[in-house]
Amino acid sequence: MKRPRVFVSRVIPAAGLVKVQAACETEVWPERLPPPYDVLREKVRGVDGLLCLLTDRIDGELMDAAGPQLRVISQIAVGYDNIDLAAARQRGIPVGHTPGVLTEATADLAFTLLLAGARRIVEGVQYIRDGKWDTWEPETLLGADLSGATLGIIGLGRIGQAMAQRAGGFNLRIIACDPVLSDEEIRGRGAEPVELEDLLRQSDFVSVHTPLTPETRHLINADALAAMKPTAVLVNSARGPIVDLVALEAALRQGQIAHAALDVTDPEPIAADHPILSLPNVTIVPHIGSASVRTRDQMAGIAANNLLAGLRGEPLPHAVPAD
Ligand code: GLV
Known about the structure:
By secondary structure, the protein is an alpha/beta fold. 35% of the residues lie in helices and 14% in strands. It has a 7-stranded parallel beta sheet with strand order 8-7-6-9-10-11-12, with helices on both faces. Helix 4 links the parallel strand 4 (72-75) and strand 5 (95-96). Helix 5 (103-118) packs across helix 7. The two termini are 36 Å apart. The site of glyoxylic acid has 7 residues, from loops.
């Protein structure tokens, strides 16, 4: 029987790639940077399956360029805001993603950012590199205590909930808002339900864990930042465009909030000479929430399983949820 043709838009861990290669005629994009959109459109012509990354724009035009035989799109990520789901649905193409396995790693990273912001870790490292560590000083690099402080979690899904679990261990009071959960469900997940406005006003730490949707784009804008405490630390490990980076830079410069600790930015990647990077009170890492060895292996395995199930015409083990 003819083996299905697939395109894999980057080299992924062998835990998934080997399975795909064993079952399919596989072309893997070999470069470090993603294929440009026009190149991807050419590469998918005639494929039966596509394994893609969050850096690929997957829209109706690309699906049509692939052709009517395209029967599965498998993304190696939990988020899928780069994929036009309505276009996939219209064409009857199932879309898979990799939820669950990256929850703990991403919450670990979010909590690392929270701690790094609270205790000014990056500033401390820079302080030594700048040759400023001359003595122990009573009032230098003072940060914020976690114990007894309030953490506001925006979006109490899997990762938000894992963040709440970590925060409990550090004796933080946890408040949360989530448009799809009832107050009861929020309490069941270990947080006190509040409206977004109250969350912003009350929190010493605000951590964003919501998907990027038209409703959440620039959810953290100038008004939201103005509502936050001047001592607050903002953590974003979800998607860059949820935070208006221009407004954030202004808020940090004006001392409207104390620190921003980000795993994601808009634009992403952020240029090395972006002015926000010259501020002392930002900690930015390059979208590494799920970047642990075990987690990436598991993501690759799930992405391969989704792809192969779709090629066989079976339900995907991890299809993106229907609206
Ligand atoms: C990473 O950001 C993911 O969505 O998996």
